[in-house]
Design goal:
Length: 54
Amino acid sequence: EESVNATLKAEVLTRSSHSSRTSYAVATDLSEIELKKILIEKMEGNKSIQRSDE
């Protein structure tokens, strides 16, 4: 029973620390993901351009 309580406390602590992250930090994470998507799309686009040149 003690271990269950400890697990619950840890869960609550991690959740509260995550929710305390500022919206700015979340927005930064989102923009990083978007940038990575754009980069991947550009790289894939470059590959298809190179193939058509051959």
